[in-house]
């Protein structure tokens, strides 16, 4: 028995889905159902205390759509599973040749959006559109959650840089790199995750750990040894034994000291005392970095109380979106073409009802209107084509441009929609045509 | 610009770490510091309302330790990063040849444990032991969190099967498969994640979705069409339009109906009404599956209120451990051999203090004692060797055996330690020798 890696690869992502997607695929196939179908991904409810969301995760969704395949190993496994026993050989041949051949429209990453608004739409033959649901939700839900949380923390820091330190507390190693990406989109300056640095070009940032200090006989020696190797990059953790003593030891390194990090204790009192120690030694250039279970609420309180902190390292709270760690993103069938007939789909179950038809969002001044794609309403349409007939049809922006988009849109948002607690809901309306379509379809269904 | 996958592979896991691990590695290397060092991974605090934790994630930690390598691409990237500019060519040659050559001791997966108890210990040359910290924490923290949450939900279901439906709400696609594994360890019967089924042999389970029902002109037709393809596996979602009407339509399929799923509405009232409809039609064999933001508290309330549910599909709340989505797992230096001298390490910072020395946990009847490895105390020692000098030195158990271990240990735990709310803390003590060592070292440090 060898330990399995549980890594995702181009060879196994097709199975990173819920079983029912593949059994339904078999059912559609056996009935010859290949209707062009449109599904929309949207967020049902705002997470607690949030007043806006930031679109993120589209690049990984695109990578998936362009690469999803069923290998022989995957097909052999499916054949061993009882529900598939009744399916024809043709179905497995279909899976063998499976490619995503449909269209993807989506909001550009970094777009501010609100519940009910489609973040993306897939239009493809029914089986293709169905199978991709689970993976798209997994990769999009999480990045939206973290980009949004990060932007709140960045705002709380009032211009001071915020760096992602969260990999060790993310929900597994891949969540760490996804969080690094999403938090950068949300406004972080960098990440401690080296892989995110290499894969995405995000600035990587780090200090030192307690283990460094503990490896030398004295803290003083540990600091000097670090400085010898990294004379231009000396940023030391000073709370291993006694924070103020640590600060005094750090000042001995002189003017090349880049900064010190506090990771425990009362950050208001300690940061002010440490600042004074640094300043008294003439080390005005040395920065104070703070870390340790920080979030937007605590950072806001720290700064209001006069903490003297130059940079925040944020981990756990950001990468798990701790105060509300889930996003109610769903992916719903909205329209099918059955021969010459267009069928609009909607759910009527009370708390989970949906709107039918392919939609567009029209962004007006301080108001969004969700209409049908066939409408031409005032405002900026938010959904744009990314994949046509299975092929990428546009260039993807650099991540710095995505971050900039989010910042611009955030700044354009009136402050009452950016409060951390009890924010006002942003005005999002449904167009008259969409409401009418919904009432008509609901009426037909109820008959 | 092609969309990056952000997949982990054997070729990039070495960089799935915090920058400071690699800069400190450079610092140790330049100073010739290769002391054999021991780090222990333990959980600082119990998550909210938890009274025990379940060890999980060890297999993926082992896979990492046996496979971590620095590729030329990784090394080239590091060389472009400013902090590495001052490091010698020898350091990069060291990274090129890097292998984990140390030892791993750990609790078997499925072991019940408590805060302060080491879940695993790495003993290796300092650089190796340091570099692996971030990845080990990421892969272990999350699986412990989910295995523990799942076991609470399984207990709340009082013998009814619980199935993981959470992939779409997990923190990214890899978190989905890690959650499937961990929730199975915690007592779930299966998962909807097909990849987890293939990679781990976990039973996969699924029903049908609203999109299936909406693809046919009527719900009745949708149900029949499903039944035609899957006569032995007909488990239908009945809340697309009207749940009770849906139940009546389902009964028309007759005695081969396996069951129906409720995903919205008042599950107490609806499940009782649906049960009656099924029973009145003579379909006593048909099961009722419930899903929709369920957790241990809601399941407990549902059953107490008389809900007639046979199987629970649990997603969001379980795979995000929603009521407390983070685990305070840390990895701390405890001991170093510097030539002939053994140095015990500890942190004194107030709220994050640690105990020095390599430890063993001795499990006695309803009491754990944390002592030193050199002690021989009454009780069952929990930490066992897994890797010796970089090589796996034991067989790994099948996942069903891990699940069984957890169940056995849970059942042995008195009920007051298994309450969902306000549980009693389990008695965990430090041995006299360990306390004495700590006081001695702390005293020396404070001088």
List the helices and strands and how they pair.
Two copies of one chain form a homodimer.
Chain A: H1 19-30, E1 36-43, E2 53-54, H2 58-67, H3 72-79, H4 89-96, E3 103-106, E4 112-113, E5 120-125, H5 126-131, H6 133-156, E6 162-164, H7 173-185, E7 190-191, H8 194-200, H9 210-214, H10 219-229, E8 235-237, H11 243-251, E9 259-262, H12 267-280, E10 287-291, H13 296-304, E11 311-314, H14 316-319, E12 329-338, E13 341-344, E14 359-364, E15 367-372, E16 380-381, E17 384-388, E18 391-392, H15 399-412, E19 428-430, H16 432-446
Parallel strand pairs in A: 6-7, 6-11, 8-9, 9-10, 10-11, 15-19
Antiparallel strand pairs in A: 1-5, 1-12, 2-4, 3-5, 3-17, 12-13, 14-15, 14-16, 17-18
Helix pairs in contact in A: 2-6, 6-7, 6-13, 11-12
Write a brief structural summary.
Chain A is α/β, with parallel strands linked by helices. Chain A has helices spanning 19-30, 58-67, 72-79, 89-96, 126-131, 133-156, 173-185, 194-200, 210-214, 219-229, 243-251, 267-280, 296-304, 316-319, 399-412, 432-446, and strands at 36-43, 53-54, 103-106, 112-113, 120-125, 162-164, 190-191, 235-237, 259-262, 287-291, 311-314, 329-338, 341-344, 359-364, 367-372, 380-381, 384-388, 391-392, 428-430.
| Count of discrete structural domains of chain A | 2
Q: Mean pLDDT across all residues of chain A, rounded?
A: 95
The structural class of chain A is: alpha/beta
Can you tell me the CATH topology of the largest domain in chain A?
nicotinate phosphoribosyltransferase
Percentage of β-strand residues of chain A: 15-25%
Instruction: List low-pLDDT spans of chain A.
Output: none
Strands side by side in the biggest sheet of chain A? 13-12-1-5-3-17-18
Shape descriptor of chain A: globular
Q: Greatest interface and its residue counts?
A: A-B, 137 and 137 residues
Q: Give the helix tally of chain A.
A: 16
Oligomer: homodimer
Q: What is the CATH level 1 assignment of the largest domain in chain A?
A: Alpha Beta
Largest sheet of chain A: 7 strands, antiparallel
- Per CATH, the superfamily of the largest domain in chain A is nicotinate phosphoribosyltransferase
- Work out the number of β strands of chain A: 19
What is the straight-line distance between the termini of chain A?
58 Å
Helix residue percentage of chain A? 25-40%
Architecture (CATH level 2) name of the largest domain in chain A: Alpha-Beta Barrel
């Amino acid at each position: 028995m060898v330990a399995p890696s549980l890594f995702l690869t181009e060879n196994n992502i097709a199975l990173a889905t819920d079983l029912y997607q593949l059994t339904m695929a078999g059912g559609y196939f056996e009935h010859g159902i290949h209707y062009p179908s449109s599904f929309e991904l949207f967020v049902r409810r705002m997470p607690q205390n949030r007043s806006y969301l930031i679109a993120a995760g589209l690049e990984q969704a695109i990578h998936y759509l362009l690469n999803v395949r069923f290998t022989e190993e995957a097909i052999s496994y499916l054949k061993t599973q009882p529900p598939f026993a009744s399916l024809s050989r043709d179905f497995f041949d279909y899976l063998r040749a499976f490619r995503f051949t449909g269209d993807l429209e989506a909001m550009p990453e970094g777009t501010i959006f609100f519940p009910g608004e489609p973040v993306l739409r897939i239009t493809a033959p029914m089986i293709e559109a169905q199978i991709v649901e689970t993976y798209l939700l997994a990769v999009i839900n999480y990045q939206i959650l973290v980009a949004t949380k990060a932007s709140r923390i960045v705002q709380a820091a009032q211009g001071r840089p915020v760096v992602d330190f969260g990999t060790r507390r993310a929900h597994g190693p891949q969540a760490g790199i996804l969080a690094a990406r999403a938090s950068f989109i949300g406004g972080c300056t960098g990440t401690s995750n080296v892989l995110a640095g290499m894969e995405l070009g995000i600035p990587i940032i780090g200090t030192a750990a307690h283990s460094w200090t503990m490896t030398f006989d004295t803290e003083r020696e540990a600091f000097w040894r670090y400085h010898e190797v990294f004379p231009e990059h000396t940023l030391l953790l000073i709370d291993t034994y006694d924070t103020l003593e640590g600060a005094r030891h750090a000042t001995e390194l002189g003017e090349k000291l880049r900064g010190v990090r506090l990771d425990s204790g009362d950050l208001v009192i300690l940061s002010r005392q440490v600042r004074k120690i640094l300043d008294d030694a003439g080390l005005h250039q040395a920065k104070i970095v703070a870390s340790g279970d920080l979030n937007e609420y605590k950072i806001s309180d720290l700064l209001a109380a006069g903490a003297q902190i130059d940079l925040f390292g944020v981990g756990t709270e950001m990468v798990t979106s701790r105060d509300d760690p889930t996003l109610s993103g769903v992916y719903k069938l909205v329209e099918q073409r059955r021969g010459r007939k267009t069928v609009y789909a909607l759910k009527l179950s009370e708390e989970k009802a949906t709107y039918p038809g392919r939609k567009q969002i029209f962004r007006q001044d301080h108001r969004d209107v969700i209409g049908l794609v066939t409408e031409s309403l005032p405002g900026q349409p938010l959904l744009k084509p990314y994949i046509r007939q299975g092929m990428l049809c546009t260039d993807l922006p650099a991540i710095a441009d995505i971050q900039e988009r989010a910042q611009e849109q955030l700044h354009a948002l009136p402050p009452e929609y950016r409060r951390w607690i009890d924010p006002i809901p942003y005005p999002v309306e449904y167009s008259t045509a969409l409401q009418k379509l919904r009432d008509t379809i609901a009426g037909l269904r109820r008959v």
